[in-house]
Every structure is written in C-alpha cells, then in structure tokens.
Amino acid sequence: MSENEFTSTAYNKFLNEHKLMGTRCRADGRVYLPPRPIAPDTQSQEMEWIELSGRGKLAAFTIIYIAPSAMIAAGYDRKNPYCVGVVELAEGSKVSAQILGVDVLHPEQIKIGMPLKAKFVERGEGEAKKTFLAFEPA
Amino acid sequence: MANRKLGRGVAIVGAGMSKFGAFPDKTTRDLFVDAFREMRASVDKGFDPKAIEAIYIGNYSSDLFEGQGHTAPLMASWVGLAPRPATRVEDACASSGVALRQGILAIASGLYDIVLVGGIEKMSSLPTEKVTDTLATAGDTLYEIPAGFTFPGFYAAMATAYMARYGATPETFMRVGLKNHENGALNDKAQFGQRIADIMAARKASAAKKNQPIPAWNDEMEFLRDDRANPIIAWPMRLFDCSPISDGAAALLLVRDDLARSFTDKPLYIIGTGQASDGGLSDRSELTTVPAARLAGQQAYEMAGVKPSDIQVAEVHDCFTIAEIFATEDLGFFAPGQGWKAAEEGKTARTGARPINTSGGLKSKGHPVGASGVGQVIEIWKQLCGVAGARQLPGNINLGLTHNVGGTGQTCVVHIFERR
C-alpha cells in the first residue's frame, strides 16, 4: 500500500494490526479520524498517517435494542442490547464506536464525558475475520 | 455568503398528497398518481397538465425498498408527461425538499415557467430489519454503521448529548410525540392519526375483549413510560419517539410568479430557500445542534428578509422527537438549550405561541422518507390558504417555513413561503 493512500482499506488494515491510525494535516497539524486525504479546514493535500493514543471521552451514546443485520449476526438483539457512541479523542477528532464495559440496562448511569480507551474487537472467522474499533472505560 | 436572490420569482399554485400509511396493494407509482390527481384538482382556475415543462422527483431508495430504480421518468410517464425531462433527486430524507429547490432553481434560471415537483417512497414492503439497514445507508457505511449505529441510534445519541448539556429528560421527548399525535388526529392523511389517549383506550378495550388484564395507565405519560406499551428502540428513543415506516407521495405545481394568478387566487410565493451539507455525526464539533440546519435557515431567512420571530407556522423534520427540539433551536425559534423547555411548556402546540408540525409531523402523519419534504409543504399550503380544517390556526396566517433534514444532518433544506 502506498503511504499516500488514505483510504478506508488502509485504515482497516491498520485496525487489523490493532493500530488506530488517523491522518494529520501538515499545514495546521489537525488530526482526522476517519483518515482524510484532503483537510476540510485548509484544503491541504499534504497529509500524513499518525497513530492515535486511543484515549478519549464519551461525547454521546445510545443503547440499541432494534439492531441492524450485522449486529444481529454478532449476537445482539432486544434481549441483548448494546451501547454505541461517539468518542471525542484526546487528539481532538471524534469517532463512532461500540462502547463495551458499561451497564446497558442502566443507561442513566453512563456519563457523557467519562474517560475511555480503545479496544480492538475481532468478529468473524477465517477470511471474514475483521477487527472493529470499540472503547471501554479507562 | 452575500445575500442571494432568485433570478425570477416562483410560486406554488397547486398541492396534493396521497394518504400516508402502509399500503400493501399500492406501489410508488399508484401513490404518486393519487398525489398528482389531488394536486390537479387543487388548481382552482384549472390548467392543462400538458403545460408542465419539467419534473423533479425526490426519492430516497426505491432501489432497495422496491427493487425499482430510475423512478423519475417512470413517474413522469405514469402521469402522462413523458417526454418532458424528469430528474430524480436523492438526499436521503431531504430528497423532496431538495427536489423542490431544484424545481425553484429551474424556474428562477429562466429555463422553465411551469414545473412539477414530487416526492415518493414505499417502505412497507420490507421487514423492519431490512428497513433499518436501508435507512442506515444514509449514514456513513464505512465509519459509522459498522460501529453499530442505526438511525434511531444516531438521534438517540444526539439526545444523550443534549440531555447532559441542557437538562432535558426522556419525558421531554415523550411530550413532543404527544403533541404531534394531538395534531395528527385532526389530519385525515395521517398514518397514525390518533391521540395517545385514543391509542391507550383502544389497547384497554382490546385487552378487555381478550379477557387479559387491563393495563393500569392513569394518563398518557404512564403509557409512554411503560416498557411494554412503548418499548425502547435506541435509548432514550422509544417507539413513540420514532416516525413510522411509511408509504406515500406528494406533488406540487410550481410556476413563474407573474403567471400564478392565472392558475389560482391563492398562490404561495416561495420567498426563501437555503441548503447546506455536512459530514457524518462524528464529524461535527458540536452534537447538540445540526449545523447544516442553522446554515440553511440563515440563507432562507436572509433571502426572504424575515426573522425567525416572523414565522407563523413551521413544519420541521421530526423523524425522531429529539429532532424537533433541535430544529426549533437551529431555526432560531428558541435559544440553544431552550427548545426542550418550550416543548414542555406547550409553546409548540397548535394553541401555543409557536405552532410546530400542525400536520402531526413525521411522527404522526408518517415519514415516507423521499415524500416527506414535499409533504411538509402541503401543510404550509393548507395553513396559509386557510383550508387546514379542524387544525387550522386562527388569525391571518401569511408566513410559513419548512425544514427538511437528510440523514443526521448531512443535508438540510429550508424554505419560506408567503401568502400575499
């Protein structure tokens, strides 16, 4: 893979290696996750890969009871709901991810702003095996 | 951006919609024919449909919902308007709001004088799980959906950010749904046109008939707090916080403004239009507002030369109850963080100072996604023409607004209408 290919394929390959990679704009230093090839702020195309700390805080969340097909296949449903949220990373950008290690039956106890750390979750078998980004309380 | 004006004025001279609901025996083309017929009949001085020069159709995903793509020429043909140019517009749930804007721009450009704008969607033929998947394609399928987000989930997440910042509670959202069902009960086109109290009474009667224990709800809030009666979809959004899975179509006839009075004595002049785009939810610096809605609203107000406080009636995109609260803040009706209090105080009720979604909104009227944007305009048309029946607002209603959102706010389109 070329170093300059800031694609979802490259991002997912890094995830498979348990690396959370974003891109940084060389013009103003802003960090983007998902990785962007063109910086929205500066229109700069001078981007570089940067490995993120995986540290962040919870910005928004929900407990999903009516799941999409892919999450049903992963074993979730009305009787086994899951938490998904938006995480604000220490580097400044936000990312959507499943939130593990929280009490999904008591959502009022899950606090916006709580510190989180990245966790890499493997789903599927053989060729279909894929790494998903998740977070858990830090 | 400097204040932009349309090159030529545009007016709406006809409006019609199908009933919204779940219709196993009807496809989009049947629903569009219903809407087109009602639109034709609404042009009180009559007109020759052959005078229509171009067609713009908002449609989100007939491809996935019905296995039918390329719907614009099909609709044009089905109402006898081929070979006129027919263009499908897709911006998720804002598809027909944006189709309206394309129709306006086509007339304003000088290319056409008479344009048909429509919106269509037929969602009910898929099982709920597949509908959830299809709607999810309006999000970012590489970076948001694999995390496990659904559309109710996105809005529920916005709700948790809003609750934490401003102090709203899940009961705040229930009150929005209650209010919209009160309005929808007066709309014969609504999919769920019953008050929550009527729904409760029907469930109690049904339980009694089946010799089952009769639920002990004392009031609507007890019903809405009951996990069995009102199950959680994506906490804190419950079933009665979510717009339904709907089929429906709507149609508008647009003309160059100086032709309007040869079609009808009650034209609606489009005095403001605004549209903006954005990335996905996690791309935004703030999660308690929809930035594209603020921008689209500002553009429309500026073009129209009116202020938020001038607007007498608004149809806003309440795909979920929290979305209505965001909309009333993003459009400047209430300050940031005050929308939920206004909703609880009844200010957005039909009898309140700031009536919102007199049609019943997407919640009660139904949300056939590609038809919803034009469907909103139908209500403003009725209120401004004084033909909204039992839900007609009192007094001289001359200025209305529509706010149509695609996805979580990747698209928003706002229009302002005036009766002169």
Short note summarizing the structure:
Chain A has 138 residues and is mainly β. Chain A is 10% helix and 38% strand.
Task: Characterise the protein shown here.
The complex is a heterodimer of chains A (about 140) and B (about 425). Chain A has about 140 residues and is mainly β. Chain A is built from 2 helices and 8 strands, in the order αββββαββββ. The longest helix of chain A is centred in the first third of the chain and has 9 residues, at about 10-15. Chain A starts with 7 loop residues before the first helix and ends with a strand. With about 425 residues, chain B is an alpha/beta fold. In chain B, the strands form 2 sheets. Chain B has a 9-stranded mixed β-sheet, with helices on both faces. In chain B, strands 5-6 form a two-stranded antiparallel sheet. The longest helix of chain B is centred in the last third of the chain and has 17 residues, at about 370-385. The two termini of chain B are about 30 Å apart. Chains A and B meet through strand 4, helix 2, strand 5 and strand 6 of A and helix 5, helix 6 and strand 5 of B. Strand 4 of chain A pairs antiparallel with strand 5 (about 230-235) of chain B, so a sheet runs across the interface.
